[in-house]
């Protein structure tokens, strides 16, 4: 049997460049796609070198670190030698989730231009992003005026919209309506379908958008912290009671460096040194990752900060974003979410996810909650309703795809719809199972492919199911279908993209390099979109 000779490997990025082999492969495909409309064309050595030369302020406009699955150390390595604003972007979590009120690029530009002073808005990036931004900001402050960025693109300084409910800076109140458990007995998970009424606040939205929730801290947790401080609930701080401020103004999650700095001032000896080390991002006892505000106070139990100083050392409570699982076109004035409840043990103490347990147990029907709509960045249904879509959303990743399906039915879109859904067990974790099967029977859902990781002896995931039906999936892609992924950024999204590359290579008769280039081109054209976290 004759074998086809694979095309020559595309080499644009030299082997001496400071990238891993996988990163070089991706970059080679990406640049080849930019420089060729008829297919990959290797560049001369001079052309390749030219691509690597900095332009203008030392920035070539590309962001090879813009990958949610890449560790921060690798992202910062890729950004070495770039302007400060680009290194600040590399420090972000790269999710473009909008939780900070910007996308990653605009948030970094706003900080670099000094239009934004807050360095802790990147919730997905957590403390490692905040620490990196702090270090870079110190570099900005030390730079002479001529060297500091004097201007950034106009889009960087994102103005707070005056329209209520359209940004975290200007929330409105929506009414909580109901919750129902999506898991059946026997499940190891706790996932809720949450519904809100928007009629009173006048909000609308587009499928793909997210819903920002301003949750409040658990009152029992707040009271335990007040007891550790040795303070009274009614102590006045910021013109309110200490209890009120701790419940709805400040974060009680990971203890910020500023709290350890405060504790270092009011302790002595070895405890002082430990607090100083923690404030510098070190881990003297190997427990830094587990230290929330309450655990920090317990660790330094001899220190009792003054309530006012304590509150000032804490971070502001950040809103949480959830993918919307309903369609305004299908149910005007109503909005739903699909929320995994987070509960876990650290030692003998149960920890609670802030917003998930707030929605699952701390609000009652009729309660008003501060909310806002976060417009999606590059995650939306195709503009042509005849375009087919492939949706890959295990677990709560199904949320926007339920919305997509309801919207396509409400608008009469004629494109085909294929959903990949997976979870642990088919008998207790098939979210919206009856609803999806009814959609399939009615012809709205053209294909429904399921994967259950705990039903058999061997774990089986959505990417495994994709490979099983790879030929059909390739046919959909070749016919112009769009691909969407929603869910875990660290593992699932990476594994799904790898499976997609393998399918393109196997059934599209391409080399791996060409398949990588093909998938990169899908992204460039907006045919491959992700909502990952």
Could you explain how this protein is built, in words?
By secondary structure, this protein is an alpha/beta fold. Helix content is 36%, strand content 15%. It has 19 helices and 15 strands. It has helices at 21-35, 45-52, 72-78, 84-91, 104-112, 126-142, 219-229, 242-248, 257-265, 269-279, 293-299, 307-312, 354-361, 399-411, 433-442, 462-468, 470-478, 492-507, 512-524, and strands spanning 172-181, 191-197, 210-213, 236-237, 240-241, 320-323, 334-340, 343-346, 349-352, 368-374, 389-392, 417-423, 447-452, 482-487, 528-532. The strands form 4 sheets. A 6-stranded antiparallel beta sheet has the order 6-3-10-1-2-7, with helices on one face. A 5-stranded parallel beta sheet has the order 13-12-11-14-15, sandwiched between helices. Strands 4-5 form a two-stranded antiparallel ribbon. Helix 14 links the parallel strand 11 and strand 12 (417-423). Helix 9 (257-265) packs antiparallel against helix 10 (269-279), helix 16 (462-468) runs parallel beside helix 18 (492-507) and helix 18 (492-507) packs across helix 19 (512-524). The longest helix has 17 residues, at 126-142. It is globular.
